Amino acid sequence: MPQKIVIAGTGFAGVWAALSASRAIALAGKQDEVEVVIVSPAPNLVIRPRLYEAELENMNPDVGGLFSAVGARHVPGLVETIDADARTLTVVRNEGVRETFAYDRFVLAAGSQLFRPAVPGLAEHAFDTDQFDSAQALDAHLKALAERPESPARNTVVVAGGGLTGLEAVTEMPIRLRAALGQDATFRVILIDTADQPGRSLGAATVPHFAEALAFAGVEVRSAVRVTAIAADSVTLSSGETIETSTVVWAAGMRASPLAGQIPGEHDDMGRVVADAYLHAPGAEGIFVTGDTARAASDDLGHVAAMSCQHALSLGRVAGHNAAAELVGLPLHPYSQPKYVTCVDLGDWGALFTEGWDRQVRLTRAEAKAVKQEINRVWIYPPAADRDAVFAVANPDYVIVP
Q1: Mean of the pLDDT values across residues 152-173?
Q2: Helix and strand tally (H, E) in the chain?
Q3: Looking at 283, 303, 338, which one is the last position of a domain?
Q4: Is residue 390 situated within a structural domain?
Q5: Which of 25, 16, 6, 12 is nearest to 108 (CA)?
Q6: Which of 20, 32, 74, 159 could be bridged to 317 by S-S, CB 3.0 to 4.6 A?
Q7: Does the pTM of the predicted model rise above 0.70?
């Protein structure tokens, strides 16, 4: 019976873990001795970084053919429990049947999910762009606004959260509202941010550019406040202000998949497993963590990989390679990703492109927008289902950067 590598998740890290593991197995000529199995509800890679956009076509490309091309097998279902001592997983297949999977190596690539604190009305009344189905729900809601009687609530959108996701969502919103309500429609778009200035966490040099882009889009900003309650037709802030709105978009941070909490060892405040240089979960032999479930040092200067596709792509390659390398006798590869960039889409204003952890501004407006579109539409998409072409870019030290 072949040894088995099981990978949970088909996000960026999960897909590339499967491809990299398959490459390592092929390099060692042990395709008959080691099997790669990927567990997720469907063999699709959701392009989460683009879910703030108005057009959702091709946001969940099928990667089933890609897995087949490299000899990996997809199982439709979800990993429910992890038994690190027994090296087994409970998998709930899509049809509801529970099955126990034994593994020789397990790679947790189950990603992250939107942080949902105990805000009254959040679950019942807020929208988000966290997953493909929730982005579709927001899209349908926005397109149906024109069918409602005109009112302050109908004509107002509130975005809660001033991080990258919130900034991209709020600056795209005027474009979406003009499409839904008409080019000459009157509406309000309001950003709620707990920080004193939107984008402040990205460094002082970026703040004036974010302020300019928000003003260009006509976005109102409420700084240093938080949402305390959400109703069907209003939102209440910690300042005591109540805003009439029937559209609240929640974008207030991320947390690692709850599955990470089942893995023994140290975790950070976002629920990620603190990994070693090879992306082992140090407290659980045979388990690797990657993508948004891993807290991993990206360089020797104290920087840690962010919850981003930029890091997930490389983390996935390294975790998949190392999981296979331990079984087929290849050298392990330490994770390292010292180059860091950010590229934030800011609606009609353009985009903002920075380099380094100190966020040195390199490109703005149209020039940065061109780079962002290249990233969004080309670089982060899965490759064609060609084994040789895939293996050429699935090595653990391959990094795509602008």
Answers
A1: 97
A2: 9, 22
A3: 338
A4: no
A5: 6
A6: 20
A7: yes
